[in-house]
Amino acid sequence: MLISFLTVALAGVVTVRGDVNARDSCSHDNCLRAFIGAGSSAVSFCQTHTSGAAIPTFAANCDGSAARVASACSCIYTAPPTSTPPVATITSTTASPTTTTTTPCHCTAWSQISPAVAACLDITLDNIQAPTSSAIILTKLQTGASVTFKGRTSFDFTNSSQFKPIQIAGNHVSIVGAPGSVIDGGGQQYWDGLGTNGGRPKPGQFMKVQITNHSIMRDLYIENIPSHGINVAGVLDSTIQNIVVNNSLGDAPNSLSGGLAAAHNTDAFDVGNCVNLLIQDCKVWNQDDCVVVSDSTNVTVRNVFCSGSHGLSIAGGGTGPGHNISNILFTDSVVTNSTNGLRIKTDFNATGSVVNVTYSNIALSNIKQYGIDIEQDYLNGGPSGIATNGVRVENIRFENVAGWVVPEARDYYVLCGDGSCNGITYKNVHITGGEELSSCNYPWSGCPGP
Ligand SMILES: *[C@@H]1O[C@H](CO)[C@@H](O)[C@H](O)[C@H]1NC(C)=O
Ligand SMILES: *[C@@H]1O[C@H](CO)[C@@H](O)[C@H](O)[C@H]1NC(C)=O
Ligand SMILES: *[C@@H]1O[C@H](CO)[C@@H](O)[C@H](O)[C@H]1NC(C)=O
Ligand SMILES: *[C@@H]1O[C@H](CO)[C@@H](O)[C@H](O)[C@H]1NC(C)=O
Ligand SMILES: *[C@@H]1O[C@H](CO)[C@@H](O)[C@H](O)[C@H]1NC(C)=O
Ligand SMILES: *[C@@H]1O[C@H](CO)[C@@H](O)[C@H](O)[C@H]1NC(C)=O
Ligand SMILES: *[C@@H]1O[C@H](CO)[C@@H](O)[C@H](O)[C@H]1NC(C)=O
Ligand SMILES: *[C@@H]1O[C@H](CO)[C@@H](O)[C@H](O)[C@H]1NC(C)=O
User: Which ligand has the nearest atom to the CA of 249?
Assistant: First the structure.
């Protein structure tokens, strides 16, 4: 049933246009969150919005402020330019006016990327080696553009945690990896076992993806991300499929990591502020969350393989109000050799909601800590042991989930706040192997089990 919502939503007509770039400077406050949460109705509103117009009911969180409404609109919709669109030729500034040089759309050097993005609808990035501090910026793609990564894409060392090597935004765009292509994050130049917690500065967000309106990103092979991988932020009505994130090399310790895995905090997919997103057919070998969803609605994650990870997660709460997550489906997936299998964590003292989450047809194996984990006690990124009830966790279904955890692990762990969990159900769920006792404070009947 939850599968159908996405199919319907993806097939529906949603119009979002514009400079999604603007979102880079848009803080996700309550007002903007309400706009994102309202999806296509907010976009339609913004398309015709004029200052002084009545504030729509979905924007109640904007405190009646016309300025905040205008600002939220500018973050989700930009009118099409009235000038003529760029053409595939530019006039050389030094040559006589009669000669023109054609902008290459097939780029073999980093310096060719920016002009190609401005001029071309069909861009190939062929064996790009990006120099130090030089990100591949694809945030001003034309509507309908396609970008193909070909050969090996690599990055020279950049000593900054602010560096974001690949940035993508666009409307109705396709981002594709050619057969055999590799995007190499060069993690070996950064890994020291500490991830984002210290040590060497590391590019903190390898890839930022803000695609909208029936865009697709597919067939990418990404290896050796320095720390966090793909930030899927503000994606509307789009699909991400057949992506491999292979950070296996980071499992081995190196000379700086004191015996720990060299790579750390290497989340593969960090999903936030997305509406109507499908992630499917992906494979991940990493050292942190495989897929983690926050502040989103209508997200399906299907046919994903996760190894070495922290599993398939929902992260509820966060600072300030307005953190709502709803209608999330994880299905037909495998989690192996990972810290957790399936996890819903919400922040201590936070507010918000996690509603309508289904995990179905999932195989777990070799899980080190918890098979199924629901915890309302996260503080500074880790469990505090004290659950709070500001985040409503409701209608959570586990169906056809089976597998095993190691003896040191627990099959199930549920720590809900007082009265904040409702309707957590298990159907045909069998997790075994844990010799630590499972512990579930909700429902009153305790953990599922034999
Ligand atoms: C989520 O999907 C449902 C079912 O297709 C649809 O009715 C709803 O509008 C979607 N929500 C948003 C915010 O687009
Ligand atoms: C979104 O894409 C559809 C085609 O899939 C197109 O008809 C529509 O105009 C696009 N919307 C915008 C705002 O570009
Ligand atoms: C990176 O920058 C830090 C300061 O942020 C500096 O201490 C360190 O020496 C630099 N490392 C390299 C390899 O340039
Ligand atoms: C992942 O990377 C490791 C180390 O480079 C390699 O041995 C392995 O074959 C890769 N796996 C896949 C599926 O490409
Ligand atoms: C399991 O993950 C660890 C790192 O956490 C890695 O060293 C090991 O090779 C992985 N084993 C398998 C079977 O994938
Ligand atoms: C919990 O939230 C309340 C209200 O926002 C705040 O006053 C309090 O300091 C918070 N407590 C902790 C331990 O963060
Ligand atoms: C978000 O969740 C909170 C807590 O359940 C709820 O009060 C609020 O109405 C929700 N906001 C939206 C925009 O759904
Ligand atoms: C949760 O699912 C129920 C039943 O499909 C639906 O009525 C409700 O609107 C959903 N809640 C949210 C917040 O989307």
Answer: 4
449 domain-assigned: no
Mean pLDDT of 76-81: 58
291/233 same-domain check: yes
3-state SS, residue 131 = coil
How many domains does one find in the chain? 2
Residue ending a domain, choose from 94, 119, 135: 94
Cα–Cα dist 429/404, whole Å: 11
Who's near 42: CB < 8 A, 6+ residues apart? Answer: 34, 35, 36, 56, 58, 59, 72, 76
CA–CA distance, 180 with 184 (Å, rounded to integer) = 12
The pLDDT of residue 41 = 75
Position 18 in a domain: yes
450 within domain boundaries: no
Which structural domain, as residue segments, surrounds residue 83? 1-94
Do 87 and 110 reside in the same domain of the chain? no
Residue 214: active-site member: no
- Report helix, strand or coil for 77: coil
More confident residue, 53 or 179: 179
Catalytic residue among 310, 323, 347, 377: 310
- For 32, the 3-state DSSP assignment is helix
Dihedrals φ, ψ of 7, to 5°?
A: -60, -45
Provide the whole-model pTM. 0.82
Nearest Cα to 439, choosing from 413, 421, 409, 408? 413
| Closest-CA residue to 207 (of 122, 271, 298, 255) | 271
pLDDT digits (tens, 9 = 90+) for 381-408: 899 999 999 999 999 999 999 999 999 9
Amino acid at 450: P
Q: From the CA of 159, give the closest atom in ligand 3.
A: 1
Cα separation, 245 vs 185, in Å, equals 10
Dist. CA 179–CA 148, nearest whole Å: 10
Cis peptide bond upstream of 115, omega within 30: no
Distance in Å, CA 252 to ligand 4 centroid? 13
> Does residue 295 carry a catalytic annotation?
no
